[in-house]
Each structure stands twice: as structure tokens, then as C-alpha cells.
Amino acid sequence: MKTVIATTAAPGAIGPYSQAIEANGFVFVSGQIPLDPATGAFVPGGVEEQAEQSLRNLKAVLAGAGCTLGDVVKTTVFLTDMGAFAAVNAVYAKYFEGDCPARSAVQVGALPKGALVEIEAIAVKK
Predict the structure, then answer these.
(1) Are 52 and 91 in contact (CB under 8 A)?
(2) Are strands 102-107 and 72-79 parallel, antiparallel or unpaired?
(3) Which of 62, 75, 77, 93 has the fewest CB atoms in 10 Å of its CB?
(4) How far apart are CA 114 and CA 39, in angstroms?
């Protein structure tokens, strides 16, 4: 059985997908880009600000599923420029401390709406 997770505290899906799906004790969070949920626009600034907003959106979707960042077991970070890895990593480290989740970081040709960063996650419900 699966449950669709939706919250207005994060941007709504911009296509035919859900913000997250809960299934068998796991929460699969779709990639979060740096849209401000109040305006639907990108946050001003560069890759650091975009990473920050993407992580705030991720945190909001997790909360909508009854989870926290501490429940995350795997993330994937998508970057349009791997040269931004260190800057994004510094922001990421503010959100994940101690026993951090497993993670992949990949460079992609482009992201939705021209974002510089997108972050997805898998969490385990307690």
C-alpha cells in the first residue's frame, strides 16, 4: 500500500508526480528545487541560496510525512555544475550532522525551470 504525501509548506509538484510517497515504512521524496512555496519563484541568489531552499523544501515534505531529516537514509544531489560541489556541501552539512545519510552527487545537463541544484531523499519512518 502506498500513501501520497502532499504539503503546502513546500512547492507543489510541477508535473505528474507526487511530492513524496510513503510505502512499506519508507518515504520517497521527489527532487526538491529552490522554489519558494509562498511565491512559486526561485529564491534570489546563487547556488548556496538555492541549496538552502531545496533543503528547506525537503525538510517540509518530510515533515508532511511525519519524518525529520534524521530519518533520511539516502539523498541524491543533482548539480548543473560540479564546480559548485564544495559550496553545496557546506550548506548540506548544516542540515545533516552526526550519522549522515548515504549520498550521491551528480552533475546533470539541466534541471527543471533552470535550477542549479535539486535534492531528493529516502527516509525511514520510525
Answers:
(1) yes
(2) parallel
(3) 93
(4) 17
One-letter amino acid at 65 equals: A
Sort 108 into a burial class: Cβ within 10 Å, 0-12 / 13-18 / 19+.
Answer: exposed
Antiparallel, parallel or unpaired: β 102-107 and 117-124? unpaired
> How far, in Å, CA of 28 to CA of 34, rounded?
18
Grid coordinates representing 100 are 549522515
72-120 tens-digit pLDDT: 999 999 999 999 999 999 999 999 989 999 999 999 999 999 999 999 9
CA distance 34 to 94: 17
The residues with which 120 forms a beta bridge, in sequence order, are 76
- What does pTM read for this prediction? 0.96
**Cα Rg of the chain, angstroms:** 14
- Residue 107 in contact with residue 79, Cβ under 8 Å? yes
CA gap 30, 40 in Å, rounded: 17
